[in-house]
Amino acid sequence: MAHDRLRSRIAWLQAQAVAEKGMRWLNTLSLFIFAAVLVAVAPQTCLAKRQALIIANSGYLYTSVLHNPVNDGRLLAGRLEQLGFAVTLATDLGAESVARVLAQFEANLTDKSDALFYYAGHGLQYNGTNFLVGVDARLQDLRAIGIETHPLDDIIQRIENVARTTLIFWDACRDNPLADRLRAALAAGSPEFADAVGVGAGYMEGRPGNTMIVFSASSGKKALDGEGDLSPFAEGLDRFIATPDLDVDGMLTLVSQYVAVKTRGSQIPQRISGMLARFQFANTAGFDERYEAEFERIAALYQELYPTDIAVERTQIVTRAGDAATATAPDPAAGASSGEANEGTTEIRRPKQTTGTFIVEARNAALIREVRASRDGRLLAFGGEDGRVRILEMATLAVMRSFKAHGGRVSDIDFSPDGSTLLTAGRDGAIRYWDVATGDLLREVSVGAGGQAYSARINPAQPEKYLLAGDRTGRLLAWDLKRNRQITNAVFHSGPILAVAYSPKGDGTFVSAGGDGKLSIRFPEGQRQTVQAHASSIFDVVFTPDGRQLVTGSKDRRIRIWNPDNLNQAPVTLEGHLNYLLTVAIAPDGGLLASAGGDKSVLVWDLKSLKPVARLNGHTADVESVSFVGNSEQLVSSSEDRSVRLWSVHQSQQVARLYFEDNGDGFVGFTDDGRYFGDERFSFVTATVAGGAEDPVRRLTADYLGKTVQLVVSRTP
Question: What is the per-residue pLDDT for 260?
Fold first, then answer.
């Protein structure tokens, strides 16, 4: 099936990721152990659909005993059995026993299985990879990692290769004296490896497929074993996992709140989800049938998008402790070239190519909420959670302007038709006009005391005269800027107005879409029409370039195409997203529609056939905003994973990634062919060259080419 081919691709990608982390010999040994055990294990004939494996290690032989993992395991085993899982509970396992139990669990799975793996005990983070530590581990040297532990990546991959749903719960972030011992031993004998032994769990990116990974504490943070007989994480799971009519995401939100309160904010669970279908632990009547239908619909959608086997492409991007991309062989000629500096901004070099590993600490990058391309595709504007606006020139991939636009989050941005002016709306209640060429503030209006502008648009037919905005209270506001007066200020929605749009016909028609799921249109003669367009919040609305159609995207996962002359006419509904929709965009030629949101994918539709033509995968968190660049060939997207990505639409592949310095002017980017570009003057970009020398980058010249170069993005203290 299509999702089986997807899982095969996932397995290959993860294998490459592990290899590129320099752990080939360790994982080869682990896989050999798994394979040897598999030969000796015969699969069961009667298999439950819901399978759970719980490994709880308390009685460590060569370090302090953990008091609670076995208690946690027994508690959750009983709860999962009540919820219809066939549970295997294994306690105090050494390395060989772990391999045997994992092999048996894998043998029990089928392609219809919903598989859950829960581990409580000591864990190890080495070189960004997480390892399960057996109770017989000593961890006296580097070789011990391959013998006494099991990589979490491998465990996940083995489950994913068989099961349709993979749920991983990792409560192994406790203080580990064995890890401290290993770090000290390496510092004495092999100091170059000592820093690779990390604290807590290592960062993991979201995995394509129907997989959710949950850490009891955020990456790099320690979890508490608990003051009583249970860990806070296990207590939270037991308390909320059986909540009826609540999917796994909603349940884990309650668990996170519980753990945060229980630990006074010192521990907050982290989840990384690529879930394609909604999953519930406490199934209500008919849920199993709905889940089966949903999963088959997903498989059919992938079959439609990828009618032939997915080719395994060359992978250059791996994520650990942020994001990383492995570059191709150096091209000295290309690397020595440089672009012109932009007056009033940092010096920018054109993309150059080098060898080595690029790493971005994504947690320190700006969260970009809004992206928009100018009509001619020459400029891209980005509005951030930090209140800053960045304007990038596509021809040079250079940030020509970066400035603080608002005191809070930038809620919306819009270019004037000629690209000379940028409109920004902020959560600070201000709406501002900026001169793109100089970055100067041209004009400001306010939504009123205590108000927050959620959406705003320039009138494309009369950009210097009319402005439209919506606020968090449901008020629609419009201004006649020529006469310097407000012409509309009235409540039209019972929730926030999340999107507004002017008709490109220039006849004065405009629309608003709200958190109440309603769509309201105002016609030139002043008449209004309002319909309940969606069952839940409408996050975006846009006209087609000819003004003949209106497109909405909603939390209910549906796209609807309306006749703006008569909203009572039944709309066309498009379904294909696996979670809520946050953004929609139309190509300037009107041929393609892009949509994205909570399923982390950008879906591209042909507006004539109303069929999906591409699914762009790469983001690892909600996609916040999308915009076509110039024509139907390129697309830009931003995400809560803090990356901005440029895509080739017709090739259905990523072209480049960008990251911006949080609360700063710096940025760095990587093209898909291994070239880097960005700011070389700000000290938030540093380089590690072969030999271990660390140096703030002032100018990355050709002297670095041919050596191992590492760019690290992190905020300057």
Answer: 86
- Is the pLDDT at 308 greater than 60? The verdict is no
Q: Side chain identity at 114, as an amino acid letter?
A: D
Whether the Cβ atoms of residue 667 and residue 659 lie closer than 8 Å to each other? yes
Rounded CA separation 472/43 (Å):
57
Provide the pairing of β-strand 693-696 with 528-532.
unpaired
Write out the DSSP string of 636-683: EEEETTS-EEEEETTTTEEEEEEEEBTTSS-EEEEETTSEEEEESSST
Please give the Cα distance from 648 to 308 (Å, whole number).
Answer: 20
CA 102 to chain centre: 29
Q: What is the pairing mode between strands 675-679 and 388-393?
A: unpaired
Indicate the pTM of the whole model: 0.59
630 exposure class (CB count in 10 Å sphere: 0-12, 13-18, 19+): middle
In SS3 terms, 321-341 reads as: CCEEEECCCCCHHHHHCCCCC
pLDDT digits (tens, 9 = 90+) for 135-148: 998 888 777 887 88
- The Cα–Cα gap between 461 and 404 comes to 28
DSSP type of residue 62: S
Buried b (16+ CB within 10 A) or exposed e, 232-259: bbbbbbbebbeeeebebeebbebbbebb
Cα angle value 236/241/245 (rounded, 5°): 135
**Is the per-residue pLDDT at 710 higher than 90?**
no
The highest-confidence range among 127-131, 270-274, 676-680, by mean pLDDT, is 270-274
Query: What is the spatial distance between Cα 559 and Cα 504, in angstroms, rounded to a whole number?
Result: 20
What are phi and psi for residue 333, nearest 5 degrees?
A: -65, -45
Q: What is the pLDDT of residues 78-92, one digit of tens each?
A: 999 999 999 999 999
Coil, helix or strand for 471?
Answer: strand
Q: What is the CA radius of gyration of the chain?
A: 27
- In three-state secondary structure terms, 377 is coil
